Amino acid sequence: MSPITSIPGKYIWATGAVLLNFAKFPILSVYYLPKYTRPHPEWTVFQSVMNNLMNSFLYHTAFVQSVTRLDLTPGSLGDRFVAIQPGPDQIYVKSLGSDPGIKPLPTGGIWFPTAVDKNPASRSGKPILLHFHPGGYVMGDVRMDGSFAAGLMTERIGSHSFWSLYRLASNPHGKFPAALQDALAAYHYLLKDLSIPASQIVLSGDSAGGHIVICMLRYLAEHGDAVGLPAPKGALLFSPATNLAAATNPKSLEENHNYQTDYLDPLFISWGASRFVNNDPAAAPYMNPLKKPFKSPCPIWVYCGGCEVFYDDVTEFVAKMESVTGNNVTYRVEKLANHDIFFAGNLMGWKAEAEKIADEAGAWVAGL
């Protein structure tokens, strides 16, 4: 372990990175006044500055290999936090990875805006979203990070959303299929513990969380009937990661034509992908859904920003999924947007566009 990735080295480095970003803000605000200096000439100064600062944040996070621990205590959340025990053994197919240290473990999740009523007769019958957060499989904590997107879901898509925690690859035994095991446990909790019908549940995820949803859809298509997990009402994918195998190589981002108009840092993406990817042959279709289209068990709605480094991959993924007989796929592109504005559009200068995307996702869900 290098001095930078161990304590106290990482804290010293992180403090310096924070101070550097504070110093950069006014400088960048002046630098980006001429349109020709901005990553995209149609972006605002604020969008340009935040793209730069977010890129810097992700770079330094990866450089010190910051670790986010899985916190399964309620804290101040009260009944909005739910601890979830692993589902019954029969819902887990054992052949998806050869690491014996990766096995179903307790997980949890957080309800937005309030805990759903435990009495089925008292519920509205509106769609309930099971959502998986972004973070490149190495960071993310919905306790602090999820309020903007969760608010969009409550106001514009469904009545409640349950944000599932999942094991991160920055921790030991966190590579695939750990996150999928946790996702299946969360789905089982909604179906069995709360008796929410599958026809009322919409799977949802952004970035790495979108990849989890794709993994769930493949798993349910291939094993759902055998393990007793029915197909959900639909699935929402916001800026999903679709090519984890390629992402292990930072050059795949550095050579991307949208590299200058996205804040995703190559070191961050390759760090997360390298920690997450499982090279077991049985896991290959899950690692690279871009190359392995499948028959989805439910309709899919996909969003991507036109200035994302993921744009080409997501567009190809959509085309290949559409080519599978019986699939129902809807694709929405926000031409000027960088990565995952649905999650952090309020911070990045894309709030209005994120709200519009949520409205369109909500209309799609209502039409199912």
Summarize the topology.
Elements: H1 9-31, H2 45-63, E1 81-84, E2 107-112, E3 128-132, H3 142-145, H4 147-156, E4 160-164, H5 178-193, E5 201-206, H6 208-227, E6 234-238, H7 244-247, H8 251-254, H9 266-276, H10 284-287, E7 300-305, H11 311-322, E8 329-334, H12 341-348, H13 351-366
Parallel strand pairs: 3-4, 3-5, 5-6, 6-7, 7-8
Antiparallel strand pairs: 1-2, 2-4
Helix pairs in contact: 1-2, 2-9, 4-12, 5-6, 12-13
Q: Secondary-structure element order, as H and E? A: HHEEEHHEHEHEHHHHEHEHH
Spatial strand order of the main sheet: 1-2-4-3-5-6-7-8
Main sheet makeup? 8 strands, mixed
State the CATH class of the largest domain.
Alpha Beta
Q: Briefly note the structural class of the backbone.
A: alpha/beta
Write down the domain tally.
2
| Mean residue pLDDT | 91
What do we call the CATH homologous superfamily of the largest domain?
Alpha/Beta hydrolase fold, catalytic domain
Radius of gyration: 20 Å
What portion of residues is helical? Answer: 40-55%
Query: How far is it from the N-terminal to the C-terminal residue, by CA?
Result: 51 Å
Shape: globular
DSSP strand tally: 8
Total DSSP helices: 13
Second CATH tier, the architecture of the largest domain: 3-Layer(aba) Sandwich
| CATH topology grouping of the largest domain | Rossmann fold
Low-confidence parts? none
**Proportion of residues in β-strands:** 5-15%
